[in-house]
Structures are given as C-alpha cells and as structure tokens.
Amino acid sequence: MLSDLLRRHQADFGPVLPVDLNSPEVARLDFTATNPLLTAANLHDTATFDQLVARLLADKNALIGVGGYLEDRVIYRRSPSLFDADPTAPARSLHLGVDVWLRAGTPVLAPLAATVHSLADNEGHGNYGPTVILEHELEGVVFYTLYGHLTRRETALLHPGLTIEKGQTFAEVGPAPENGDWPPHLHFQVMADLQGRVGDFPGVALVSERATWAALCPDPNLILQSRHLATE
C-alpha cells in the first residue's frame, strides 16, 4: 500500500510549507458537527468564516491551524452546488486531505522531487481555486500530491512536465476570492491513482465510502509529520 511506502520514506520528505508544523503555535481545528461554534455560523460568507477561523486559533493561542483528514465536516454546506447538488442523495462531507490554515502568500514547497502532472483554476465558491498536482516516484511506485487554494500568479508560471526539485517553492497559498473563496489555507492531499483526472481530484467524499477513499488517499501526515495531526 502507498501508506506503507510513505512510512518507509518519512526521513526523505522535506516540508510542504516553510513553517514548523510541530510548533506550539500550531493547533488542530475541528470542523465537525461537534464544534458548537459552527452551528449558527454563516459559513457561506467568507469574511464571517475567516473570523471564525481566527477565533478558533485565538482560543488555542495558535497562529496556524491544521486538520481535516477523514474528518466528517459540516462546512461544505456553504457550497451545496459542489457537494450535494442532488438534495435526495447523501451529501459528501468526508475530507480527504489535510488543511493548513495560515496567511495568504505563504510559499508552498515540494516535499520530494517531482514533475508537474497538471494544474487548473477550479473556479467557483467553495472549490479549489488554483490547483497543482505533482507526480512523484519512490521505489518505482508513482503517486501524486495535490495542492489546492493557491494563487493564480504563481501557478501561471507552471506547466505539465516541469521538473520541481525537493524543497523548491512552486506556488503560494492564495487569498480569497481567487482561492475558491475560502479563508486562506492550503489543502494538501496524497493520491495513489488519479483515475484519469487532470488538474482536479475529489477532496471530499461520501462518509459511507470511507474505506475506499482512505486506501486511495492515504494520510497526508505521513509526509507532513506534524505531532498535532498524530492519530491515537
């Protein structure tokens, strides 16, 4: 499994962001229905959502927020056209990546040597905004990492096939509204197979399909290695 491969190579990965994700200034944020602050919040309004993120961080004396992998989230109700367009069908709410909530303009680095597989500006309220997918290889196994909610300026300099060195800055965390109209954060996801997709990949799935998607998209913390994201 890809998770086993990533675990074997943890010493080989560089940072995805130029910040210490093990710092006491980093805190895990909860966007599930168990967080009472989300109950009445108008998450459709990005300014209000941004204030909520700031409050969650302040409550934990933190500057950077992390979390989200396989979290059953309520925040996708802000974009029903993306996540539950059919009101008769179950809504997608299972988050497949890790979000790092921090200031716009923060550089994004390649954790491993890569080539740019594809990129796209996934426009629309609640979407990824500018998105980059990198292709990597370890022990002859090809896998992919996705970076969502970036800046248009930096991603415009990339093209498929471009070689990216480990530790190289290739993008920046984007501001609203160009980042898909979210409070600034990086969505980081790992995929074993893109299933033919280009410039995009589901970041949210049905809770009932958790096992299938967890196998396809292993824990990004195998690369990030933040103690705040460690599972029990």
TrEMBL record:
Pfam families: Peptidase_M23 (PF01551). It comes from the Bacteria. CDD domains: M23_peptidase. Residues 94-192 form the M23ase beta-sheet core domain. Coiled coil: none annotated. InterPro entries: Cell_wall_metabolism_enzyme (IPR050570), Dup_hybrid_motif (IPR011055), M23ase_b-sheet_dom (IPR016047). This is Peptidoglycan DD-metalloendopeptidase family protein.
